[in-house]
Specification:
The protein is globular. The strands form two sheets. A seven-stranded parallel sheet has the order 3-2-1-4-5-6-9, with helices on both faces. A two-stranded parallel sheet has the order 7-8. Strand 4, helix 4 and strand 5 form a beta-alpha-beta unit. The N and C termini lie far apart (39 Å). The chain is α/β, with parallel strands linked by helices. It binds NADPH dihydro-nicotinamide-adenine-dinucleotide phosphate (NDP) and 2-hydroxyethylsulfonic acid. NADPH dihydro-nicotinamide-adenine-dinucleotide phosphate (NDP) binds next to helix 1, strand 2, helix 4 and helix 6. The site of 2-hydroxyethylsulfonic acid (8X3) has 6 residues, from loops.
Length: 256
């Protein structure tokens, strides 16, 4: 049953990987879209693809989640245009580098914290009050298995994803007494541009992350996100962990 047809979903980080796959999966459910990311050409191409294939409304915006002013401006614009999102998918995020904490790069830490934690907070602070005022809506955060278990040299990235989990749980209790739902979808290894970004464009090193086993694809995570969004109003999936069959924890990965 399609309960979300005709609704509007706002997706951060829609130009690649999980965010792009979620845009495609929501579009297939005839959900209208507000797609945000920094790469304009990719946004334009995705808008054309989805509007043509599904006849939905797609608004795109070149947008950096690290700006609270931009988040507030967008929220005001959406409210004025009668386009308050029914679903906010906080997906934009990244890991940068992989080194022991005492050898870490402070600029990398700041970019991860600014994007993964503060970006999610800014978007939520801007959009969630409109959902609370309407007493309906759904915030879905993309967490990670890295927010459940730390791994060597994951330190600050792990901390950002532990923070996402704490914020999901915090919002959940803060929203008690409203009909607004909050969920987290926490994947294991997904083959996207994530490792290319982490290793600063070193595609060979990035490819080795996904060798010898079958990782998740963005589409697998998108199916889970749509499942979470499509539950009846009285049902909330608070936290859904989704792993490749070959991966049993942050530490147990079966490579052939
Ligand atoms: P990708 O690198 O493939 O995609 C990341 C997306 O985020 C891109 O669309 C990028 O677009 C956007 N983005 C990055 N920085 C910003 C910013 N400052 N403002 C707005 N958009 C931004 O990675 P994934 O799809 O893999 O990652 C998506 C989420 O999933 C992240 O939160 C990640 O932590 C999480 N995750 C990933 C896993 C994996 O194994 N891949 C596993 C578990 C969780 P642009 O550059 O155009 O702005
Ligand atoms: C991304 C998955 O294991 O590379 O969150 O941290 S992992």
């Amino acid at each position: 049953m399609n309960r979300i047809k005709g609704r509007t979903a706002l997706i951060t980080g829609a130009t690649a990987g999980i965010g792009k796959a979620c845009a495609q999966a929501f579009a297939a459910m005839e959900v209208n879209l507000i797609l945000l990311a920094r790469r304009e050409e990719r946004l334009d191409a995705l808008k054309r693809e989805l509007e043509r294939a599904h006849g939905i409304f797609v608004l795109t915006k070149v947008f950096d989640v690290r700006s609270f002013a931009a988040a507030l401006e967008l929220a005001a614009e959406l409210e004025a245009d009668g386009r308050v999102p029914d679903i906010l998918l906080n997906n934009a995020g990244k890991a940068l580098g992989m080194s022991k904490l005492h050898e870490g790069d402070v600029e990398d830490w700041e970019e991860m914290i600014d994007t993964n934690i503060k970006g999610l907070l800014y978007m939520t602070r801007a959009i969630l009050p409109m959902m609370v005022a309407r007493n309906s809506g759904h915030v879905i955060n993309i967490g990670s298995i890295a927010g459940h278990q730390v791994y060597p040299s994951g330190n600050v990235y792990n901390a950002t994803k532990f923070a996402v989990r704490a914020l999901t749980e915090g919002m959940n209790v803060d929203l008690a007494g409203t009909k607004v739902r909050i969920s987290s979808v926490d994947p294991g290894l997904v083959e996207t541009e994530f490792s290319e970004v982490r290793f600063r464009g070193d595609t060979e090193r990035a490819a080795t992350v996904y060798e010898g086993y079958t990782p998740l694809r963005g589409e697998d995570v998108a199916e889970a996100v749509v499942f979470v969004a499509n539950r009846p109003e009285h049902v909330d999936i608070l936290d859904l962990v989704i792993l490749p069959t070959d991966q049993r924890s942050a530490h147990v990965l079966h490579k052939a």
